[in-house]
Specification:
The protein is α+β, with helices and mostly antiparallel strands. The chain has helices at about 1-10, 40-45, 55-75, 145-160, 165-175, 175-180, 195-205, 210-215, 220-230, 250-265, 275-285, 295-310, 340, and strands spanning about 25-30, 35-40, 75-80, 95-100, 140, 235-245, 270-275, 315-325, 345.
Length: about 350
């Protein structure tokens, strides 16, 4: 039974997370058949994860992954959420939730069924896809108009105009430097949609002094936006995940819906890339957790894309948006922690 629980955790370790930071740790209790999830703020703290909100989205991803595992291997799982409005933004390592498992009567193999759920930041082939029957709150639209691309680029421009955000991007490109010392791959430039020379240059410019200089050079922002624009233009499909958001805990359900979409697409060879900077700052500002999401460009995105996705629900917000398509070239899966790194004994 212990081996089954460990193999479940191995599968769950493929969860998506902001900055690839992987802030969750798992604790197995073989006698109680439970898997506890702990969130580590020291790993999770990041400009794009204000008050742990991106981590809450990732928690929803993990919950949906467990649901898919239970269907695949015919067991039952009950999830108890341990965070609430008063402790979701804790700056300590705390217990975020517990899975209790019953009816596990077959062997769960070590192979990971989620390996094909990847984020691909490269251009996509020009083919339209049909959205599987998932949820009425997930919408699909085709080909972005030039005015819609410009709106997305305005939100990206905010990222490349803020020094702490630039530092965060550089850290992400060279993410294994501090957080994954055991990994030997070095710069994971392919998923960043960069040539090796570009990634090598940027990852070498991570010192506060050099970043301070770079933020004053418009060429950095211009090149970054040009790269983003070229990729977005080669995007045949856009996915919108809608929800009514009144509390940070509502983001758990959004994470679940987003992963279900990504998982069903992966079975058809379709990959996705979140356009998080277009929508999440607005949502985080709505929850009083992020100041920079109050700009007019974010409100305009909400108005424009609600119309594009034909969402008539007045209480809904466009929480998360994704590019979707078949990849021009295959990328290796995102790097993840080793099993020993995610398990608490």
């Amino acid at each position: 039974m212990l081996k089954n629980l460990e193999n479940i955790v191995t599968n769950l370790s493929r969860y998506s997370s902001g900055d690839n930071c992987q802030p969750f740790f798992f604790q197995i209790d073989e006698s109680a058949l439970t898997i506890k999830i702990f969130h580590d703020y020291e790993i999770a703290k990041h400009p794009f994860n204000p008050e742990n909100l991106s981590s809450i989205l990732s928690l929803g991803v993990i919950v949906q992954m467990m649901e898919e595992l239970s269907k695949e291997y015919s067991f039952k799982s009950k999830f108890e959420l341990m965070i609430n409005k008063s402790n979701f933004n804790s700056r300590k390592r705390i217990h975020w939730g517990t899975f209790t498992i019953t009816g596990m009567n077959q062997e769960i193999p070590k192979k990971n069924i989620f390996l094909n759920v990847v984020t691909d930041r490269k251009p996509y082939n020009e083919i339209e896809i049909n959205l599987p029957l998932l949820d009425n709150d997930i919408k699909i639209a085709t080909q972005l108009e030039e005015s819609e691309i410009e709106l997305i680029l305005k939100s990206e421009e905010k990222t490349w105009s803020t020094p702490e955000h630039i530092v965060a991007v550089f850290e992400w490109i060279f993410f294994s430097y501090n957080r994954y010392k055991k990994l030997k791959q070095g710069i994971y430039y392919k998923e960043a949609n960069m040539e090796f020379s570009e990634a090598l240059l940027i990852s070498s410019l991570r010192s506060p002094f050099l970043v301070k200089i770079l933020t004053k050079l418009k060429i950095v922002k211009i090149l970054a936006l040009k790269k983003t624009k070229s990729v977005i233009r080669k995007t045949p499909n856009i996915i919108g995940v809608f929800a009514e958001i009144t509390s940070p805990i509502d983001l758990v359900e959004v994470g679940k819906k987003a992963f279900l979409m990504k998982y069903e697409f992966s079975k058809k060879g379709i990959v996705t890339q979140p356009l998080s900077s277009a929508t999440l700052p607005y949502i985080y500002n709505l929850l009083n957790c992020c100041d920079y999401g109050s700009g007019a460009q974010y409100k305009n995105i909400q108005i424009k894309f609600k119309d594009k996705f034909n969402n008539q629900n007045k209480n809904h917000h466009l929480v998360w948006m994704f590019r979707a398509g078949t990849p021009v070239s295959s990328l290796p899966p995102s790097l993840r922690k080793d099993f020993s790194d995610i398990l608490l004994r």
